[in-house]
Structures are given as C-alpha cells and as structure tokens.
Design brief:
The complex is a heterodimer of chains A (about 425) and B (about 425). Chain A is about 45% helix and about 15% strand. With about 425 residues, chain A is an alpha+beta fold. The termini of chain A are far apart. Chain B has about 425 residues and is α+β, with helices and mostly antiparallel strands. Chain B has two domains: about 200 residues, Cytochrome Bc1 Complex, Chain A, domain 1; about 190 residues, Cytochrome Bc1 Complex, Chain A, domain 1 (2-Layer Sandwich), CATH 3.30.830. Chain B starts with a strand and ends with a strand. The chains are: A alpha+beta (about 425), B alpha+beta (about 425). Chains A and B meet through α2, β5, α4, α10 and β9 of A and α2, α4 and α12 of B.
C-alpha cells in the first residue's frame, strides 16, 4: 500500500524530563496524552542483598507489610481510597532494590503520589497485619513446594550460584526464615534501607511534567536520610563442572527443567551480543532455534525457550522447558546439541538479521503503553544508559556481528559445564 | 471514534477502528468455533486446529509467518476458548498488509501434513500435562464437568487426553474446512491508518475467498440444575482450594450487567474486562469476610462473556490449617446477605466508578482495542462493548439483589474442593 512510513518518536532527551531533588531522588517524566491514565513506577535501594542469611525473605516481607497500612491510613482506609478510584499500587523486593508502582486515571495522580509517599515513609507495621502478611507468604511457600516450575527455578539458583551470593537463595524466603522474622526486624529493615538516596520515580501519562514534578516534591521532597553502604557482592565464579539435581514432586504429570549458567551482568560488555545471541537461540519467532528443534521438529514440549536476565547481580542465562518425564533426557540432549551448534558454527547473516530486526522493530510495541515507557525509563536510569539510549538502541543491536555471537556463545553457553535442575514426578 | 463496519459479499464481517495514539496496527481474525462446537471424542479439536494453523501452507510454510512478523518486531499468536478461535498480529502500522496476507491465507490453505499432525499431538499432550501440574487446573476441570452435564462448556479447551491420543488428521482437517469460512469469521483491525483505505485492503485480501456452507448449529441446552452438586479432588501439596460455580446467563442477557456489578461488590472489580489493570479487591465483601477473617489467603471472582449460559466462579485459597467447610460456610453467609439485604448505594456507586476506569484501561493499547472489537462480535456485537459502561451505570441495588436471589441459589451451584492429605 502507498503510505508514508510513520515516524516513531522514541522517548529521548527532548521529551523525557529528568530532575534530581536535593534529597537524592531522581524524577523521570514523560507526557503522553493518548489515554487518560497515568503510571508511576520506581525503585529504592533496599533488597535481598541487604538481608542476613538467617532472615532470607525479609526484604519481600517488609514490602508486603508496607502494603498493609500506614500511621495515617490503616489497611481498610488505604484500600478504600485506592479501590474506590479504581487505582492500584504495589511494592515488590528484588535482589538490589525494591520496586514500587501505581496506576490510575490521570486526574488521580496527586492522590496516588500521596499514597505512595505515605506507604514508603510511614508504615505502621501493625502486629495483626504483620501476621497476616506472614501467613500469606507461608502459603505461597507451601504452593511453591508443589509447583514444578518454581521448584526447578529455586533448585537452579542453588546449583548455579555460590552460597555467599543472594542469587543462590529464594527471594520469597523459606519456612524457617519467614517464621523467624520479627516485627522489629521489619521495622529495622525499613528504617535502615528505605531512604530517598538513589531512589528513582518515573511518571508517564496524561499529565503535565511541571505539575508532576511539584506533586513529587510535595510527597517526597522533605524526606531525608541515606542508607548504609552496601559491601560488594561476592564474585560469581564460572561453573567448572556439570551440576545436576533432580527433584521429585508427587502427583505431577510433567517435568520442568532449567539448564543454564550465571550470565553476564547488564553492564558487562558482552551483554548486548549475548542478548542478540539469546534471541537467535531461544526467542525469535516461536522460541528461536530451540523451538524449531525441540517443539516443531520433535514435538517434545509446549514451551521451550531461553532467557537472559542481566541485572546488576549478574543474573542467570537459562534454558527453560516443560516436558513429559520420559522425554527429559532426550530434550537435554537436543539442547546440548544446539549449544554446540551455535558455538561451532557462525550464525548465518540472515538469521542474525532476523533477530536484530525483531529486537529493534518491537520498540514501538514495547513503548505503546505508559507502563512500557515507564519500564524503559527505569531501565535507562538503573544502568545509567543515557536519555538517548532508546534512540541509540537500534544501532547497538545492529552492530552485533556473527563473529561476536559466536564468541559470546563460546564464552557463556558451555555445553560441558552447566547447572541443570529438573522438578517433576519420580520416573 | 472513527469506526467502520461492513460485511463483504462472502459474509466476512469487518470492523475497523482508527486509533492514532501509536504507529502500530493490530489485526485479528475471529472464527466462531471453540469448545462450544465440540463433543465427546473430539474434545480439544478446535484448539488443536489452532495449533495446526501455525504449521504451514504452501504460501507460508511452517515458521515462515512467525518469522516474517517477528522480523517486523511484531507480536503474533492464536487463542482458543469456549466460543472462538482467534489469531492476531500487532505490527508497525505500515506493515498491515503482511498480517492481512497471512490471515487470508490461513482461512483456506493450511496443509495439515500428517507428520505435522503427529508432532503437534505430543506438543498438545505436553500442554495438557503442564496444566495438570496445577491444582487449580485439576479442580477447575472437575467443577466445570460437574456443572455441565449436557452442554460442551463442560470440558476444558485443551480437551481430554483420550481424545488427544486418538483424533485423526482427517477429523482435524474436516473441522478446519467446516468452520474456517469467511461467513463464520470476523476481521477486527485497530490502529494508526485511514479506515477507508484499510477497508479496500481487506476486500482485496479476503474478498475472493468463497463463502462456505453455514456452520452446523449448536443445539445443546444445559437443563436447569435441580440441586447443589459437589465434587472433591484429592491431590498432592499442602494447600487446599475451594471453587463455587453458579450457572449464569449468556453475555447478551440483561442480567449479565447486574451480575457484573454484583461480582465487583462481592469479590472485586478486576474481573470486569481484559485490561492492563490489576485492581486489588481488599474492600470487597468476600475479602473482608474470608481473608480479613483468616478463612482464606485470597479470593477471586470471575464471570466471562459467552454465547451460551456460562458460569460465575468464586475461587479461594484456604488459610493454612483452615478446613474447607469453614471457608465454604463463611462464603455462603455472604451470599445469603446479598440475597436478603440490598447492597448500599455507596457500594453500587463504587463498582460503577471502577467500571469506568477499567474501561479506560481496557482501551489503552491498540492490541486491546482490536481484541474488544472482535471479541464482542463473537458473543454479542461491538455495541455491547460501547454500551458497557452505561449498562453498568443503569444497574440498581434492586437489580443486584434480584440477580443474587435468582442465580446464587444453592440449587444452582457446583462446589469443588481441592483436598490435600492431612
């Protein structure tokens, strides 16, 4: 058809407002009047990496209790305010940081920010709410023990990361650690680590940047404090052997398997070539090469794909599949064969270009919603990628060569030394 | 809003909505075929045909369409459920022809190569086995089987294992030939374009596909339920679950709107519409009665828009150590309260306010807009969606009480327990 190619205005320095408040909070704002909604999304520096070994789960437990009432708004008042305007908010703890967010109609932005400020700064830690949150977490752990996907993921962490590293452990916690955590632990964790230092807030939606900046200053501007310095995380050594663990879970029909390695951190120079290699290997079209071999040609699995996490940590590079218990070994053999293939033979130029086109071409879809843009802005800030990152991104992706893909595959995708976790019925 | 609706000479319904918020387009083709058109022996056939529809034609051999869409940075997939099978692609706006080309080809030319059928048989069995790992799938499958003894909605979309093991290539191909006709389909497109131009393009790609015979009518009617039904699923783990399912009318029925409001008050507003919002339900009656009182750790209510009468599900996860009978009793007390006493005007107004916001969230992305354009045509028409907020605004406290009395009777429900070893 004859039609001009629409020009996508990728968020960039000309339309992202970035400010830093005197107390250390960084604001990122992008106006978007396409729908009458607004998304607030951010993080602060409190995470699983700040938690001692006998209190694993403390960061997540704290975030859960924060969702359950402040000195100004008890649980019932908090949710009456939020739900009656059909808005939502949530907190969740990761390895290095705790994320928070809210979504609502744009007209409610001041109230959303007021609530987020209240929740992050003035939690009540009511005894009753602490126990309710604890019961929810314990139930979640119970459910995890009966879930092959989650148990395979947990087992994989244990195999791939050293005990001294937070990625070795569950972020949710364990029965004993969650039971051990006291109200005081939660209060302490909050007062030590929830500070405006290095906190980031992104706001995207049908709002005016100047109004947003003022509302954030109102809700957070008088917050002071800084958190204790975090000791560096222990290094994550390369796997020097094959580590395989099979976990049998009663009454299941399918096995879940995860094969992988600690991967490159987000700022490792290998990350972008690895990201492209991962797309070729287990993402493009229907699960990339993995999908073609394991699903399409051999009919072994409904899902089989690969995933590269990056992160500050460094996160894992994993191959994930759900297969009949009888087919586990065959699937693993096919995966290893594909690993050798991508290491030994240079990826054809056309195949590489396909994956590059997917990664660059999907930007408009990823940036279509306010939530998608907010996610991208936080990613830019977290890794200090520069406000023009999205505009530079296609060039960076397209610069990856077949030779680089092969090099990073040889460096990272080791078919002799890996961690393999399998959770499913006993065979 | 710039909306264009037309029907091609071959019977294909076309709905086109201009939306210039982002330079993308979302193209959906909906076929009126799903669980509703299946019976014992061929359960899961519609879903399997959907899988086969990605296994290639002469023009688009297996994997080529996926790759072509991915190369443009697009999203591409299919879904099957009670009343429909649908395929979609969301792409940069100037690539709309690619999506139309793939979908027009899919309507007539899928090969159903016997080897591909066999390879997909094990993929689908794997999909089913993955589902079986989930206690809530096991419970939900039993509950719907007990709730329906006549209507096909009683079986899961994925189908029974025995049918997946025995269906033949020719059965699948016949199903495809029977239902994949322009006169049994809806083409829904939303995005950044000129609607008139897209109408001409649609005609060019789909206009020469011949109409087929009318699809066989679905004659099954579920008889009224004459007493409570109960089912217990015993399984591994440590967590018990409760599901209660009430028969409710189809989406076109006026009472569907009062039931939607009822659900928002009883179990929370998130069940309103497919959208990007996930609103908590902590002020809902059941959260307060079940979760705040420590009978359950969560409660969820859902009703779905269907062609034939569907089910209203309430599902709760038991609080650690709580017996399901106590949870069920506490839930029933809240149901009776809805029947005995009108809800408050404040509760009603809150639900109506939530509906307006959720409607705005549901229209946020181009993909969601095209989804509703087509989905609403399957069970009613697009007017249903456009009038949705107004219909909910017209619901009264008396309506809510009346539908509670009419549909939430014990005689009309199926109670399911997922019980773990104690």
């Amino acid at each position: 058809m004859h039609r001009r190619k629409p020009v996508l205005s990728l968020p960039g320095p000309n339309d992202i407002v970035r400010q830093t408040l005197p107390n250390g909070i960084t604001l990122l704002i992008r106006e978007n009047s396409a729908s009458p909604t607004v998304v607030v999304s951010g993080y602060l520096e409190a995470g699983a990496a700040d938690v001692p070994r006998d209190k694993i789960g403390l960061a997540g437990f704290t975030a859960d209790v924060l969702e359950r009432g402040t000195h100004k708004r008890n649980f019932a008042q908090l949710y009456e305010e939020i739900e009656s305007i059909a808005a939502s908010f949530d907190l969740s703890a990761g390895t290095h940081s705790t994320s928070f967010g809210a979504k609502g109609l744009a007209e409610h932005l001041p109230l959303l920010l007021d609530i987020l400020g209240d929740v992050l700064r003035n939690p009540a830690f009511e005894k009753e709410q602490v126990e309710k949150a604890r019961a929810e977490i314990l139930t979640d752990i119970q459910e995890r023990e009966n879930d092959t996907q989650r148990m395979a993921a947990l087992t994989f962490r244990g195999l791939a990361y050293p005990e001294e590293h937070p990625l070795h452990w569950s972020q949710t916690g364990y029965f004993d650690t969650i039971q051990r955590i006291t109200r005081d632990d939660l209060v302490q964790f909050h007062s030590r680590f929830y500070t405006p230092q290095a906190m980031v807030i992104a706001v995207v939606g049908a709002v005016k940047a100047a109004v947003v900046a003022q509302a954030i200053a109102d809700a957070f501007g008088d917050w002071q404090g800084s958190r204790p310095a975090r000791p560096p995380l222990p290094p994550v050594p390369r796997l020097g052997e094959r580590r395989i663990q099979r976990l049998s879970i009663d009454d299941k029909t399918q096995s879940d398997l995860i094969l992988g390695w600690p991967g490159p951190a987000r700022l490792d120079p290998d990350f972008i070539p690895c990201f492209v290699a991962n797309t070729v290997f287990g993402v493009f079209g229907m699960y990339g090469r993995l999908g073609r071999v394991v699903r399409e040609a051999n009919g072994l699995a409904y899902y089989v794909y690969s995933s590269l996490e990056g992160g500050r940590a460094p996160g894992p590079w994993r191959i994930i599949a759900g297969v009949n218990p009888m087919n586990v070994d065959k699937t693993v053999a096919l995966i290893l064969e594909e690993l050798r293939h991508i290491r030994e033979e240079r990826v054809p130029k056309e195949e590489l270009q396909d994956s590059q086109a997917l990664l660059t071409g999907s930007l408009p879809l990823q940036l279509e919603t306010n939530g998608g843009v907010a996610h991208a802005l936080l990613n830019i800030e977290r890794y200090n990628l520069g406000l023009d990152y999205l505009q530079r991104y296609p060039e960076m992706i397209n610069a990856v060569t077949p030779q680089q893909v092969q090099e990073v595959a040889q460096r990272w995708l080791d078919p002799e030394h890996y961690a393999l976790a399998i959770a499913g019925p006993a065979v | 809003m710039n909306l264009l609706r037309t029907t091609l000479d071959n019977g294909l319904k076309v709905l086109i909505r201009e939306s210039h918020a982002a330079p993308v387009v979302s193209v959906w083709v909906w076929y009126r075929v799903g669980v509703r058109n299946e019976h014992q022996g061929i359960t899961g056939i519609s879903h399997w045909v959907e899988h086969m529809a990605f296994k290639g034609s002469a023009r688009w051999p297996e994997g080529k369409a996926d790759q072509a869409v991915a190369r443009e940075g697009g999203m591409y997939n299919g879904m099957t459920w009670n009343d429909f099978t649908t395929y979609y692609a969301t792409l940069p706006a100037h690539k709309i022809s690619l999506a139309l080309d793939i979908e027009a080809d899919r309507m007539r030319n899928i090969i159903f190569d016997p080897e591909a059928v066999e390879s997909e048989r094990t993929v689908i069995i794997s999909e089913r086995q993955g589902n079986e790992n989930s206690p809530l799938f096991l419970l939900g499958e039993e509950v719907q089987a007990v709730a329906y003894r006549v209507h096909p909605y009683g079986h899961e979309t994925v189908g029974h294992l025995c049918d997946l093991q025995t269906m033949t290539r020719d059965m699948l191909y016949n199903h495809y030939q029977t239902y994949y006709t322009p006169n049994n389909a809806v083409l829904a497109i939303a995005g950044d374009f000129n609607a008139g131009e897209i109408e001409r393009l649609s005609e060019r790609y789909f206009g020469n596909i011949p109409a087929g015979p009318d699809a066989p009518p679905v004659t099954a009617v579920e008889p009224p339920q004459r007493g409570e039904r109960r089912v217990v699923v015993e399984g591994a783990g440590q967590t018990d679950y409760l599901t209660v399912a009430y028969h409710i009318p189809e989406a076109r029925h006026e009472d569907f709107f009062a039931l939607t409001i009822l659900n928002a008050i009883l179990a929370g507003a998130s069940g309103f519409l497919v959208s990007s919002a996930n609103i908590t339900n902590h002020t809902s009656r059941l959260y307060q009665a079940l979760v705040a009182k420590e009978f359950a750790v969560d409660i969820d209510g859902s009703l779905s828009a269907t062609v034939d009468p569907g089910l209203y599900h309430l599902t709760a996860t038991a609080w650690p150590g709580r017996a399901l009978i106590d949870l069920e009793t506490a839930l029933n007390i809240e149901i009776e309260r809805l029947q005995d006493t009108p809800v408050t005007p404040a509760e009603l107004e809150k639900a109506q306010r939530q509906a307006r916001a959720l409607f705005a969230y549901a229209s946020e992305s181009t993909t969601n807009q095209a989804f509703w354009l087509g989905y609403s045509e399957i069970f009613a028409d697009y007017g249903w969606f456009l009038r949705y907020v107004d219909k909910l605004a017209a619901v009264t406290v008396e309506d809510v009480q009346r539908v509670a009395q009419t549909y939430l009777r014990p005689q009309n429900r199926t109670v399911g327990w997922y019980l773990t070893p104690k």
